[in-house]
Amino acid sequence: MVLGNPQMVRWGVLGTGRIIGKAGTALKQSRNGVWLGVAGRQEESGRLAAERYDVPRAYATYGELLADPEIDAVYIALLNHLHYEWAIKACEAGKHVLVEKPFALNASEARQMAEAAQKHGVLLKEARVWLHYDGIAEIRKLLSDGTIGEWIHGRGHYSFIPDVASSRWNASWGGGALYDIGCYLVSWAGYFTGEEPEAAEAGAWLHPVHGVDSRFVGTLYFPQGKTVQIETFFDVAQGAYFELLGTQGKLRVDFRATTEVLEVVCTLNGGTPRVWPMNRIEPFKRQAESFAEAVLNARAGETRPAIAEALGYTLQQARVMDALLEAAERKCRVVV
Prior knowledge:
Elements: E1 9-14, H1 20-29, E2 33-39, H2 43-53, E3 57-59, H3 62-66, E4 73-76, H4 83-92, E5 96-99, H5 107-120, E6 124-126, H6 136-144, E7 151-159, H7 177-193, E8 199-206, E9 213-221, E10 227-233, E11 239-246, E12 249-257, E13 261-268, E14 274-279, H8 282-299, H9 305-330, E15 334-335
Parallel strand pairs: 1-2, 1-4, 2-3, 4-5, 5-6, 7-10
Antiparallel strand pairs: 7-11, 8-9, 8-15, 9-10, 11-12, 12-13, 13-14
C-alpha cells in the first residue's frame, strides 16, 4: 500500500458494527481506495476490528481518526443518532464523508450536515448501497420507457425480526422500523416513480417495552392523484419488495438475501421473473469506488454534479420522513 498514491483514496471508518464486515471488506477490495484506519466506541473495539480486518491503524477515539492528516475520506457506520454529530465533525476536519442510512434523524440535521460539507469544501453522501445492485438501473429504465404505462399506485414492504439486543430497539439511539428500514421504502418510492410526494399520512404502533415504532404504515401522496403505500414491521418474517401498478401493467421488484448472496427479482405483469444474483460485497465495493472516484475528481478540480444531485435527493427524503413521523403523531395528513 502506497499511502502517497494520488490515485487512491485513504479511508477511515467510524464504527465497528456488523455492517463493516461488508462495507469495510469492500473498501479493501476497491480499485481506487485503501482502508487505512478504524475507530470504535472504545479503544479496544477499534483495535479488535483492525486486527480482524487487517487494517493498518486503530485509533483510541473517533476524534483521533479525524485528526489523522493521511485520512482522505470517512465512512460513518455509527449508531443512527451519532451520524449528525460525527458527519459534521468529519466535514470540519476536511474529510469527505459517506454516511450510512439513515442519513440523519430529521431534515434539520440533514440540512446542517449539507451546510457543513459546503462550508468546508468536502463531499458528503448518504450510503444507498441498493443503487449499486445489479438490475436496478435496468428496472428503472423499464419504468421510464413506459413499460407499464403511467404509474398510478405503488406499494413498498420491508420487514424482519431484529435480535432482542439490537440497537434498533433503542429509542434514544434512533431506533424504530421507519428509520431502520422505512427509509428504504421512501427512497424506492422516489427512485422508481421519478417523482416526489406532496403529502403524507401514517400510523405507527409503539412497542410497549422498547418505545420505538415496531410497525409503521404510511401513504405518500403524489401529483395527479398518485399514491404509494409503505409498510414496515419488526415482528414479521423477513421480506422486501416494491411494486408499481400502471395504466398498462404492473411491475414488482423483490429483494432477497442470504448471508452470502443477494438477488434482485423483477416480475413484469405476472410473467417469468428476471433474476440478478450477486455476492453481498460487490454492491458495497461499487459504492466505495463511485464515491472515491468523485473524491479523486474533486481533487483534480473537476465538478461533481452527481454528488450534489444525490445530496439534494437525500435532503428531500429527510423531509418526507419528517412528514411521515408528524402524520403518525398528529393522525392527520401532513404536507411535505
